[in-house]
Amino acid sequence: MERGEAIPGRVPVPSAPRGWSRTLGVLNPLRAVWWLFTNVRFAVVLLVLLCGLSLLGVVLPQKPLPVRGDVVAEANWVRVQEGKFGFLTDPLDETELFDVFHARWFGILLTLTAASTGAYVISRLPGAWRAITQPRKRVPDRYFETAPNRLEVAGGLDAGRLEEALRRSRYRVERFDEADASNIFADRFAWAQLGTLFTHAAVIVFVLAAVVSRADAFSSPLFLAEGSTLPIFPVRDPNQMQVELRDAKAQFAADGQALDYRSEIAIYRRGEEVRSCTSTVNSPCSFAGYKFYQSAYFGFGAAVQVRDLQTGNTIYRETLALSGTAKAPHVTVRDGAGAVLLDETLVLTDELVGRDFTYRGTLVRLPSGRLISVGLQTADNGDERLAVLEPGAGDGLLQLSLAEGESGESGGLQVSYQKAVAIPYALVPELPVPLTTGEDGASKPALQLSNVVYGTDKTSEGTTTGDSTPAGPPLLTLTGLKAQAVKLHQGESVRVGDYQYSFLGQREFAGITVKRDRSDYLIWAGAALIVAGLAATFWVPRRRFWAKITATRTLMAGQAPAHARYARELRRLAHQAGSARDIMKDDD
User: Fold this and answer.
1) Could you tell me which of 466, 487, 486 has the C-alpha nearest to residue 423?
2) Given this model, what pLDDT does residue 176 score?
3) Which CATH class is domain 139-186+541-588?
4) Which residue stretches of 320-434 are H helix?
5) Residue 479 CB: number of other CB atoms within 10 A?
6) CB-facing half-sphere around the CA of 178: CA atoms within 13 A
7) Digit-coded pLDDT (tens) for 20-68
8) Which of 232, 239, 298, 235 is nearest to 263 (CA)?
9) Contact (Cβ atoms closer than 8 angstroms) between residue 404 and residue 411
């Protein structure tokens, strides 16, 4: 018996067509994979896992970029985390939960999510496209009785007026006239049916953006002093670029609140200047796909130079960031007649550590020739007072201990301790010192910068360092070079042993972060797809309309999302077509 031949007593059934999966039986497992990836529940599970793991990546500390890839640095970083997570530290590190977004399993999960979403879009696209390009234009009479949105009007409406009303509402209208009835089909915003596919496609685009960002993103933080230049890439990179900070600017309110940061920079490639621009936090410079952001500002820098006078060579030239602070008391001294002998903020240069206190002070010579010692004495319990002493023995010597804001008289002088301010300070162990200094056992070189008014690295807190009105040009105080402190104004030099020390001037620093992230365009594309999808779904949802008009009645039905309130629109259309009253089978 040949295929398709009827068996007596049975209804002949045509043979099923051979599909690719039935013809190539070895590929049948692909159907199961395709079904899995197009299954909505599988996609939901993947998205829940992705969101949950991403949340862990936000909540748990992640390995900083500078330590990633360095075995020793990573081990030290993980050791620090033991204080927070205890015995869970090693399991968290082994499962890469301290580096979630760079873990291989996270990349696999992203790939599966993108594949599942892509399979869903592909599987739904042909049907959606057919529904848009080949909509059903005729429906059976039974549909006018069961449609969720329907309207029956007694008497026949004017088909022409109804068609005109639909066109005014931006419908695409087709009319089919028969002997005893007129049928109308209208479609509005047909393309909006792709809205859900747009939002699903946005997920794929965001996943691709994450992949591109991981594989291609570049970030290099630079901290430059004015007049200095730093490379962006490793030294031997053939496409090397350098950034020069020509001028760092900052504006502050009277209370120290930062108002504006900006930096004038120059960009060099292969030794040639290719761009000169101004960079700010929100308006970076751009060149060759890289963006140069102003990411930090620091106003306390001192350019110092050291020359060996025997050879004439410059052996040290650096701009040093004075990132620490030291207290400096503002003291006023008057004589018996009330004349002011001293009124300034004193830089403390000498330090003495006792059994139960610490003393930092300096010697001050008054115009009358008297030499006094002024310093801050801090007890072990944290109590701090200003100690003012006059060396020597006998009566009539100055001896006072004052709290901040207090005044006192002694030795024929009146002393007022107004307040203590913080001035920029830094220890500089690498600063060259004469050999004789080292033999005398002097302390490590330290720099203090006074007479400066800039916001600190905590300007967001509204704090300032220094007086609101400086007493003169910036003054650099160097200790550790010889027994007495060395004080230099900008442009001044001093000889200590065989070395000449020069203060070239105060310099500001700027943090310039160089970034390249070509995933930006994908993120914008994904955001555009989401906006388009949401707008299509909620703002301009698709509406389909069918009507059958006879001499005795008019039947109308439509399809639209529930939030479109389509039953109301059917009544409006019927009214515009000439209906005096309407009869709703099922109101909205």
Assistant:
1) 466
2) 92
3) alpha beta
4) none
5) 24
6) 10
7) 444 444 456 777 888 888 888 888 888 888 888 888 888 888 887 667 7
8) 298
9) no
Which residues fall within 8 angstroms of residue 127, CB to CB, at 6 or more apart?
Answer: none
| Whether residue 147 has pLDDT greater than 50 | yes
Mention every residue, 6+ apart, whose C-beta is less than 8 A from residue 94. Answer: none
Give me the mean pLDDT over the 222-226 stretch.
Answer: 92
Q: Are residues 396 and 308 in contact, defined by beta-carbon separation less than 8 angstroms?
A: no
Would strands 446-450 and 413-427 be described as parallel, antiparallel, or unpaired? antiparallel
Kindly state the tokens that stand for 281. Answer: 């936090």
Q: For a pLDDT cut of 90, what percent of the chain falls above it?
A: 38
Number of alpha carbons in the 13 Å side-chain half-sphere of residue 419: 6
CB atoms closer than 10 angstroms to residue 388: 25
Residue 497, token pair as written in the block: 């042993």
Instruction: For residue 187, give the H/E element and its range.
Output: strand 182-188
Beta bridge partners of 454: 465
Residue ranges of domains in the chain: 22-127, 139-186+541-588, 306-311+318-506
Q: Which residues contact 510 (CB under 8 A, 6 or more apart)?
A: 223, 224, 226, 245, 248, 261, 263, 294, 296, 297, 298
Q: Which residues of 39-54 are buried (b: 16+ CB within 10 A; e: fewer)?
A: eeebbeebeeebeebe
pLDDT in tens, 231-283: 998 777 788 899 999 999 888 776 667 778 899 999 999 889 999 999 998 89
Residue 408, pLDDT score: 93
DSSP state of 443: P
Cβ atoms of 278 and 325 within 8 Å: the answer is no
Sign of the alpha-carbon dihedral angle for 132, 134, 136, 137: positive
List 477's β-bridge partners, or say none: 448, 487
Would the pLDDT of 585 be above 50?
no
C-alpha–C-alpha distance, residues 369 and 388, integer Å = 16
Compute how many other C-beta atoms are within 10 angstroms of the C-beta atom of residue 288.
Answer: 11
Distance CA 286, CA 518 (A): 13
d(CA 230, CA 539): 52
Unique residue bearing structure tokens 């960031």:
321
- Element of type H or E holding 124: helix 104-133
Rounded Cα distance, 436 and 409, in Å: 42
Backbone angles phi, psi at 503, to 5 degrees: -100, 105
Q: How far apart are CA 327 and CA 375, in angstroms?
A: 10
Whether 360 and 374 have beta carbons less than 8 Å apart is answered as no
Q: Residue 337, Cβ neighbours under 10 Å: how many?
A: 5
Q: Over the chain, what is the mean pLDDT?
A: 84
Compute how many other C-beta atoms are within 10 angstroms of the C-beta atom of residue 305: 15
With the CA atoms of 128, 130, 132 and 138 taken in that order, what torsion angle do they form, in degrees rounded to the nearest 10? Answer: -120
Closest by Cα among 381, 387, 386, 383 to 404 = 386
Report the C-alpha gap between 555 and 540 in whole angstroms: 25
Nearest to 302 by CA among 324, 334, 287: 324
